[in-house]
Amino acid sequence: MTPDRAAGLVETRRALAEGEVTSRALVEGALARIEATQGTLNAFRIVRAEAAIAEADAADRELASGARRPLLGVPVAVKDDMDVAGEPTAFGCPGAFPPVAEDGEAVRRLRAAGAVIVGKTNTCELGQWPFTEGPAFGDTRNPWHPGHTPGGSSGGSAAAVAAGLVPAALGSDGAGSVRIPASWTGLIGIKPQRGRISTWPHGESFQGITVNGTLARTVADAALLLDAASGNHARDPHRPPALTVADAVGRDPGRLRIALSLKPPFTAVPARLHPEIRARVVELAAKLAALGHDVEEADPPYGQIGLTFVPRATAGIAERVREAPDPALLDPRTRDAARLGRLLGGPPLRAARRAEAVLHRRIGRFLARYDMILAPTTAAPPPRIGALYRLRGLATDRAMIAACPYAWPWNVLGWPGLNVPAGFAGGGLPVGAQLLGPADSEPLLVSVAAQLEAELRWHERWPPEPASAPRAA
């Protein structure tokens, strides 16, 4: 481990357990890296410096006593849509948000595993867009190319992990918001089965399309964080059967049938797959074939799945806008989406929710022929800072759909998906590919991702050293 960049979760946990390093040293290193890059990368909304040091000291006392927990003393970050006791949950919004009284369930479980929460990472306003920019907190930048976005809405978590500020972080994924920034920053991003990681105090986040997920540099780290955060609040409506996903790392998945799907789901906006991304995804398909899997081109029968997404997404925005301390401060695009959500919140929303079962059956029949799907995560490399944020209204939606048409159907279905790095495009910008599976398929997706990682060694590549912000005189 070096002071410049965080080691991974697995390595950090081992070093702590064997007494090679203290939690205080790890947390102090993370806080120093955050401070040094906050003026340039701007990954964090809230840094819990004093509280994190105190928690690290408590973890060191526990380690010295011989106690062991899955993440005891390990520093991690969480996205600023998750409640951390004593901190506001602004979710990218302007306004005076009060501190919350209790941890959300996912944060509670991380603490129960022994993790130290060093801070809350930036996200765009209510997680709506695939960029992390806004007047409440500024621009979060991509460590690989600071002139470009790390994606969104979990862009702060992705930037923090990609730059090595922390070894791993939680994000949330409502239309690709873990997988898209993982793609654009060269990370593993796991969107698990709906309910795998609780979104409590929201039993269903955005009418069930948003789930919490993990971002890390390696498959093993992402799976370890997933296991630590997994579990349910007593009042959660979705309670999938328990899994230990980390056990699948290194497990032979056997010979699988994999559908290579390059065609975007139907949208009202044309979407064209960038030729370099197509080439990178096809190269991954060839690697999977070389590993012994049967890979053939085939597209899921998505049909008009988009008609089921919009009512759920906009109704969810309307619910969150009602919670904002001053809705007048919100972006006009947010207020427009909330108005649409109120219009669609009756019969259209109920119809959209009923359609999920139909989609499960139809796409389930496709997945009876294939074990999983390989698809691009995005259609385009990461845009420049401001390219999407400065747009307004319909222009934002059109640009967003054109760049990111592939991820959101799996949010409607509620099934697992996982981004793996696919290489680079557009002059050294990271891009990714998705492994998509049926319900409760996280172990299978993780085992295949780990196969690819062992061959391609993507975790050995780092972005340039993060630039330090100039210190005030």
TrEMBL record:
This is Amidase. Its EC number is 3.5.1.4. PANTHER family: GLUTAMYL-TRNA(GLN) AMIDOTRANSFERASE SUBUNIT A, MITOCHONDRIAL (PTHR11895:SF7), TRANSAMIDASE (PTHR11895). It holds the Pfam family Amidase. PROSITE patterns: AMIDASES (PS00571). Keywords: Hydrolase. It is an enzyme of class 3 (hydrolase). NCBIfam families: PRK06061.1 (NF004717). Belongs to the amidase family. The keyword Hydrolase applies. The keyword Hydrolase applies. GO terms for molecular function: amidase activity. Residues 26-445 form the Amidase domain. It comes from the Bacteria. InterPro entries: Amidase, Amidase_CS, Amidase_dom, AS_sf. The lineage of its organism: Bacteria, Bacillati, Actinomycetota, Actinomycetes, Kitasatosporales.
